[in-house]
Amino acid sequence: MLDAQLNPKIIESAEHEDRTRCRAVHAYLPPYPQDAEDRGIQGQVYVEFSVMPDGRSRNPRIILAVPQGTFERSVRDGLLHSEFVSAPAERSPIQCTMFYRFVMEGAVGYSRLDAYVEETLAHARAGDPRAQMLYGMLLVGLPQLNKPRSQALPWFLKSAQAGMPVAQYQVGYSLLKGWGCNCEENKGLDWLRRAAQAGQPDAEVTLAMYALKGSPDQERLRQARLWLEQAAAGGSHDGKLYLSALLATASEAEGGDPRRALTLLGEVFRGVKDDPTAFEIRAAAQASAGEFREAVQSERQAVAMAQRLKWDVTPLNERLTHYMGNQPWRRSLLDF
Is residue 275 assigned to a domain? Predict the structure, then answer.
């Protein structure tokens, strides 16, 4: 058992955010991946993502995918093209979760959703740490259940105490955000470090983003890059994404490296042609390298894609103005 002093103080039905904004107004369901269908592969994905005031999602973060490398792109594509409840422009982004199941039509031996939930709960009650973590994800990730984070957190905590790094990340992130519990940053950071030390990439990325909050000094920049390098080295999509954005916007004195940013970007977005984020980072890297004409072209492509997706393009146009004036972008690209 881990130190009980690290346990969150759970608050019944507490969300600290308006989860109605996580409801999809128009959900885009991408086709079943052809390769998976041909091979008879079924699976599940749990994802966290931000919904902006414009009602569109940004940077879906895959927390669990079974099997790995099969359905992640379909989930990211589905969220990119879905529409959620919008809010006034001055509101902050909201963090949301979703649980996807990929089941082939007519599949034999693959439980119906209600039976799957009950089976998972039975295993969780029997003390299976993986089932405890999975049941927590089902509670907050399935729109059909729509349970508050406070009901999922005890299951995440049981799994985390048993040493599951993904569950430790869930507890740490909940404490950091005040999801279903009191917001206690120090406790949250402790859980995140435990998960990160076990190689959990989402914890590594979250610790990096925490270090970059506000106006980070050189030491915090060093810490952030260290965590992102660790996540990227482990093959993390988000580790490479955030590292590429950091390298594209940092000055040379701060350790910026636009060429490496472009290399990482190519790995993250290989085969992806309609996500404005890829072109945003590319434009920033090109501008940082002094290639302003190319940066303007890339940013204009990002703006055009964002308009088709019905994003608020105000921040994109601000960056475009910088590049047109031969100025690099030195602020964050991924404030969500």
Answer: yes
With contact defined as beta carbons under 8 Å apart, do 247 and 261 qualify?
yes
Query: 120 and 48 in one domain?
Result: yes
The answer to whether 240 and 264 have CB atoms below 8 angstroms apart is yes
Question: For residue 326, what are the β-bridge partners?
Answer: none
pTM: 0.86
Give the domain extent around 252: 208-324
The verdict on residue 221 lying in a domain is yes
Residues 112 and 214 grouped into a single domain: no
SS3 state at 65: strand
Identify the three-state secondary structure at position 336.
coil
Give the start-end residues of each E strand in 67-138: 83-84, 94-102
Query: What's phi and psi for 23, nearest 5 deg?
Result: -80, 130
pLDDT in tens, 39-74: 888 898 999 999 999 999 998 889 999 898 899 999
Q: How confident is the model at residue 336 (pLDDT cuts 50, 70, 90)?
A: low
**Mean per-residue pLDDT for 24-35?**
89
